[in-house]
Amino acid sequence: MRVADVRIPQAGPCSASRRAPSLVTRHSSLVTRMSEAKALMTAWTHVAPDREEEFNAWYDREHLPRLATVPGVLRARRYNRVSGPGPQYLTAYELTGAEVWESPAAHQARKTPWTEKMRSLFRNTRRSMCKLILPAVHRRQNQ
């Protein structure tokens, strides 16, 4: 399974790092930032197998790093479907609020020639904006 995880530092320019989920840092400031996510933007899509290499390069090198600079974007993660029907790729953006996605900064981050090229290759795309209805529930350490 392919997973990309872009974390946003507390302050300063975007110096996003990529980590596999098994390497999640249990740092109190990170937990606090993630708990600020009041909205989740999801995008499912599929691309032709012969375009996947460029698609993944675009997402990893341009798209996620640019969106990570948008104020209010807390984290972006990518997943590759391993079972069941539907599009091959899922991207989930944790946001401070639904309005972040339509902000001028978010529009600017999504406006590049490479983005336009890649969007023309998307198939069976589904996008959804979701609002948090219950804070995170965590497993207890002693279990």
Task: Explain how this protein is built.
The structure is a single chain. By secondary structure, this protein is α+β, with helices and mostly antiparallel strands. The protein has a single domain, classed as Alpha-Beta Plaits (2-Layer Sandwich). It is 26% helix and 27% strand. The protein has 4 helices and 6 strands. It has helices spanning 28-35, 52-67, 104-109, 113-119; strands spanning 3-7, 17-18, 39-46, 73-80, 89-95, 123-131. Strands 2-1-4-5-3-6 form a 6-stranded antiparallel beta sheet, with helices on one face. A hairpin with an 8-residue loop joins strand 4 and strand 5 (89-95). The radius of gyration is 16 Å and the shape is globular.
Topology overview:
Layout: E1 3-7, E2 17-18, H1 28-35, E3 39-46, H2 52-67, E4 73-80, E5 89-95, H3 104-109, H4 113-119, E6 123-131
* Global morphology: globular
CATH architecture: 2-Layer Sandwich
Number of domains: 1
Regions with pLDDT < 50 over 5+ consecutive residues? Answer: 1-33
Number of strands: 6
Summarize the structure.
This protein is α+β, with helices and mostly antiparallel strands and 143 residues long. It has a single domain (3-131), classed as Alpha-Beta Plaits, CATH 3.30.70.100. The chain has 4 helices and 6 strands, in the order E-E-H-E-H-E-E-H-H-E.
